[in-house]
Amino acid sequence: MNQALKWKIKRFKELSLDELYQLLRLRSEVFVVEQNCVYQDIDNKDSKAIHLMGTFDNEIVAYARLFAAGDYFQDASIGRVVVAQKQRQNKWGHELMQQAILGVEAFFQTKTITISAQLYLQKFYESHGFMVVSDVYLEDDIEHIRMTKN
């Protein structure tokens, strides 16, 4: 049975040590280990971000970080979008993107959002209103595209 996630959204300084540890662990599990990509996840941008966390059984299983215009791209942006591998059958990625878009609108009073999306997720992001605005480029040896939602 599909259970509901509990959503929390916090600025960096509001994160508990346990939340910070869990979100960094989740990002490492997926972006470094699962995707077999050696890259610097801790990029000095977390302190500028708003952190969106979806928890299930007191564990962060869905996460994204939100940025104001100018902090990552010219537009507001969403990044590090991730759902724990063991929870993907629940299709929480769609709920995560809906919450992230609402978070950007609430925190930054804008509907224009730019993302750097892994190419294989193009259709997923298009289903949330994003459109491709760049050619394919490599980011950490993974094909990406820039996408924007207005």
Description:
By secondary structure, this protein is an alpha+beta fold. Helix content is 27%, strand content 33%. The chain is built from three helices and eight strands, in the order E-H-E-E-E-H-E-H-E-E-E. Strands 1, 2, 3, 4, 5, 6, 7 and 8 form an eight-stranded mixed β-sheet that branches. Strand 7 and strand 8 form a beta hairpin. The radius of gyration is 14 Å and the shape is globular.
What gyration radius follows from the Cα positions, in whole Å?
A: 14 Å
Give me the number of helical elements. 3
SSE succession: EHEEEHEHEEE
On the 0 to 100 scale, the average pLDDT is 94
Number of strands: 8
Structural class: alpha+beta
**Helix fraction?**
25-40%
Q: Provide the β-strand percentage band.
A: 25-35%
Q: So what's the overall shape? A: globular
- CA-to-CA gap between the ends? 35 Å
Which consecutive residue ranges, at least 5 long each, have pLDDT under 50? none
Biggest sheet features? 8 strands, mixed
Give a quick rundown of the structure.
With 150 residues, this protein is α+β, with helices and mostly antiparallel strands. Helix content is 27%, strand content 33%. The model has no long low-confidence stretch (mean pLDDT 94).
